[in-house]
């Protein structure tokens, strides 16, 4: 294996399965003794993580690095866009915020970002045997092609072979795969080497004729069909993942079932905080968009937000704010995490994120929030309920408390808890102790399972992704693409006709 081999995993749409396929390939290669790293040039996501050296990257790339068995680094996700209110996004460059821009202003940064992206990929290719790159959205977004730095723009710049993933569970997968290739200009098409079909749950013999016709129409093979596999919702990049039905959400509820309602904020961020709750036997996690969704909840969670003040206004418009205040004053548990914690305070002063100035919070915790221009990024550790807690923090809002009981870095008053720490619930001992107290306050006959390990479940899931790649993809073909690149001659596909083979590229 030569050092510096690379491959780009693109998709017909957002949430087609690019992240899990990338992670699966990383885990499969790592098992072969290959030194492999993930890479996503530009990620638009509200789910992020803090690396060991204090850089902020997309949570999916952090997970992919874990799949590869390497330390997550900023160069693995050099550009992170974090959407906020008013169609603006924060640009995080190599792990540090550098600007707040709208779509027009973003163009002024594009060449600088392109240089950083290309340099970051080159750095990884110099250091690792293989770099598995993940695209963003779809490469067929032809309105954005001129400024693209993460799909075919990256593939052309670095001469990367491209595999396109299509989600058959959505329907229309053959049209999506064909159309993706057909809409690309010939030089881009020359790098598209094959397809992967994701989330198939039918009879393979019924799919086979379609795969053959797709090959005849495009001149490109399908490199494998990944079966529908429940429970692979790892570190999703955007809130589309929240719209997937959870198996536990349809489970019958007994008197011992602990019911958790997570408020579905418009700018919800780091919602992976709740994944650790969902793995606990006897805990059902549901999303709430109105007061009625909170009625039977034993615990209401206000999660992180990229737009604390505007999401707080949304809570009030929906009647959720009043419902949360009523339940808290009745002694029913509420947990606020980061932006959700800020909403629970008495007062929020924000001249940074929203520019709204002083805004009244929900007043459920004795705290005041002041937004600072500099972002706090860290990997704090502490104790609660006698248990060690490791976490991470990403916020502009600085919370000062004036009472209540200490709770991690935040406070508790009555049945209301607040903390800026993300990831605390991934600590098994702390999670079990917290849920035990919540169940006691809620009067629920719930008993935690003492042997549930969130880290072990995560590792098992990453192993499952590696298994799927090994068992269902043409790994010999993947090796050839990584080592040799795309075939020298691939047909040009026109939207309305059969492919034709040019003289070469």
TrEMBL record:
GO MF term set: ABC-type vitamin B12 transporter activity; ligase activity
Matches recorded under InterPro entries: Class_I_gatase-like (IPR029062), CobQ/CobB/MinD/ParA_Nub-bd_dom (IPR002586), CobQ_GATase1 (IPR033949), CobQ_N (IPR047045), CobQ_synth (IPR004459), GATase_3 (IPR011698), P-loop_NTPase (IPR027417)
Coiled coil: none
Keyword Magnesium: no
Keywords tagged on the record: Cobalamin biosynthesis, Glutamine amidotransferase, Ligase
Cited SUPFAM superfamilies: Class I glutamine amidotransferase-like (SSF52317), P-loop containing nucleoside triphosphate hydrolases (SSF52540)
Protein's name according to its UniProt entry: Cobyric acid synthase
Gene: cobQ
């Amino acid at each position: 294996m030569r050092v510096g081999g690379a491959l780009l995993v693109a998709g017909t749409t957002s949430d087609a399965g690019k992240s899990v396929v990338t992670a699966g390939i990383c885990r499969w290669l790592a098992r072969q003794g290959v030194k492999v790293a993930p890479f996503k040039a530009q990620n638009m996501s509200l789910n992020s993580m803090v690396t060991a050296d204090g850089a902020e990257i997309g949570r999916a790339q952090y997970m992919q690095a874990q799949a590869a068995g390497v330390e997550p680094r900023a160069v693995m996700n050099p550009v992170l866009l974090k959407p906020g209110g008013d169609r603006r996004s924060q640009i995080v460059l190599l792990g540090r915020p550098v600007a707040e821009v709208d779509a027009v202003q973003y163009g002024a940064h594009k060449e600088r970002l392109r240089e950083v992206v290309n340099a970051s990929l080159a750095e990884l290719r110099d250091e690792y045997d293989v770099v598995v790159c993940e695209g963003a959205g779809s490469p067929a977004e032809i309105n954005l092609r001129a400024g693209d730095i993460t799909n075919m723009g990256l593939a052309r710049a670095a001469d990367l072979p491209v595999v396109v993933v299509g989600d058959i569970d959505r329907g229309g997968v053959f049209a999506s795969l064909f159309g993706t290739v057909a809409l690309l200009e010939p030089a881009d098409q020359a790098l598209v080497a094959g397809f992967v079909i994701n989330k198939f749950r039918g009879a393979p013999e019924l799919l086979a004729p379609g795969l053959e016709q797709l090959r005849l129409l495009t001149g490109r093979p399908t490199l494998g069909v990944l079966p529908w596999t429940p429970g692979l919702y790892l570190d999703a990049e955007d809130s589309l993942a929240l719209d997937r039905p959870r198996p536990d959400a349809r489970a019958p509820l007994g008197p011992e079932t602990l019911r958790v309602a997570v408020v579905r904020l418009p700018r919800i961020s780091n919602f992976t905080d709740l994944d650790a709750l969902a793995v606990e036997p006897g805990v059902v996690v549901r999303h709430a968009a109105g007061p009625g969704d909170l009625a039977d909840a034993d615990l209401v969670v206000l999660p992180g937000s990229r737009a604390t003040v505007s999401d707080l206004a949304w809570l009030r418009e929906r009647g959720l704010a009043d419902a949360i205040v009523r339940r808290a004053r009745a002694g029913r548990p509420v947990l606020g995490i980061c932006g959700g914690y800020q909403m629970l305070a008495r007062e929020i002063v924000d001249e940074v994120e929203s520019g709204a100035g002083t805004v009244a919070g929900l007043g459920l915790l004795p705290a005041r929030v002041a937004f600072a221009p500099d972002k706090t990024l860290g990997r704090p550790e502490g104790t609660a309920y006698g248990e060690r807690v490791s976490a991470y923090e990403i916020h502009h809002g600085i919370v000062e408390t004036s009472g209540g009981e200490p709770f991690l870095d935040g406070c508790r008053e009555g049945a209301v808890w607040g903390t800026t720490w993300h990831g605390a619930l991934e600590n098994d001992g702390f999670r079990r102790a917290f849920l035990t107290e919540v169940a006691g306050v809620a009067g629920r006959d719930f008993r935690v399972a003492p042997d549930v390990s969130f880290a072990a479940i995560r590792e098992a899931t990453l192993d499952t992704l590696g298994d799927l790649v090994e068992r269902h993809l043409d790994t010999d073909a993947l090796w050839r693409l990584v080592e040799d690149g795309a075939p020298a001659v691939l047909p040009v596909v026109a939207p309305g006709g059969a492919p034709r083979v040019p003289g070469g590229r």
